[in-house]
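Quick one:
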Amino acid sequence: MRVLCLDVGEKKIGISVSDPTGTIAQGVKVYKRTEKRKDISSIKNLINEYDAKIVIIGLPKDLNGAIGKKAKEIIAFSEELKAYISIPIVLWDERFSTNEAHRIFELAHIKHKDRKPYLDVMAAQIILQGYLDAQKSL
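Output:
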């Protein structure tokens, strides 16, 4: 069962997908947002393309675990998306996913300016792998 993951930002959405066994996350692409209707249509197309059975959306909680302004925006986005798709949406804590992406790039000795195009997709991959790993431990 494939799982699609979205790291939703104001201007871009990082996208990752699991392998068919739901074990390994892999980055797909960064989608540049335009308008909500087109964004949702593109997400629906990805769901169909990968035959995803669930969508994970990174929820940017505050450091103390509270739901702040950004998280509220993501919750609103997920509610809008729910009206257009028929598969479940799970909000997944994404605290530190971008920091972890930077750490991985640093380990690979990739310069900051060279990371930028890949940062959102790497964050989506990290979020999804965290979700997949948590499901295996249940």
